[in-house]
Write a structure and sequence with these properties.
The protein is an alpha/beta fold. It is built from nine helices and five strands.
Length: 197
């Protein structure tokens, strides 16, 4: 599977970073993470630069430790230089230091703290008949044009809660940063040919 997601982390957050990768890869989202994906005897820095260049998204496992890490700062700077989308995955309630704030101030943040309260399992709802698999796949592909491989996860997460197709498109469009992107995404999805029942 292509490694569309580059995972940046501080060594003290290694366990969390690898758990994140395992979760993403169980959803068929390919990740690159050091040292697992560095070729033995290869130049470490060159491999990291190549992996950042090949990725579509950087997930930054953000903590007090990564906030102070010169290596993390270099990786984020390279990602910004390569015009990669950066998703800070904050595992501690920490604000970015000046050296990172410059790069991260406009990003969406995903907070992974405090630990979520475990709710009882929901009763599965049948997929509304308005949502055919082929149709959802087309929506996912259109969303991926804007946000890359995270589109699959977002479609999968939003579909059970959507009241209909229009509601689903609005939920997904809310993930996009600009009004123009939201409008274009919804417009392109409305042109998807509906399956004949």
């Amino acid at each position: 599977m292509p490694r569309d997601v580059f995972v940046s982390y501080s060594q003290s957050d290694r366990q969390c970073a690898f758990e994140l990768v395992a979760r993403a890869e169980s959803e068929d989202i390919g990740c690159w993470i050091a040292p697992r994906d560095i070729t033995p005897s290869a130049d470490w820095a060159a491999e990291i630069i190549d992996a950042i260049s090949a990725a579509r998204v950087m997930v930054l496992v953000f903590s007090a430790s990564s906030n102070k890490s010169p290596q993390v700062r270099r990786e984020v700077e390279r990602a910004v230089h390569r015009d990669l989308s950066i998703l800070p995955f904050r595992i501690e309630d920490v604000q970015p230091a000046n050296s990172l704030e410059f790069f991260l101030s406009t990003q969406h943040w995903l907070d992974a703290f405090p630990a979520p309260v475990v709710a009882p399992p929901a009763v599965p709802r049948a997929m509304p008949s308005a949502f055919a698999e082929a149709e959802l796949r087309q929506i996912e592909l259109r969303l991926a044009d804007y946000i890359g491989p995270l589109a699959r996860h977002l479609v999968k997460r939003a579909t059970p809660h959507a009241l209909g197709m229009e509601d689903l498109l609005l939920r997904l469009a809310a993930e996009l940063e600009s009004e123009d992107d939201r409008r274009q995404f919804i417009g392109s999805c409305r042109r998807i040919e509906r399956p004949r029942g």
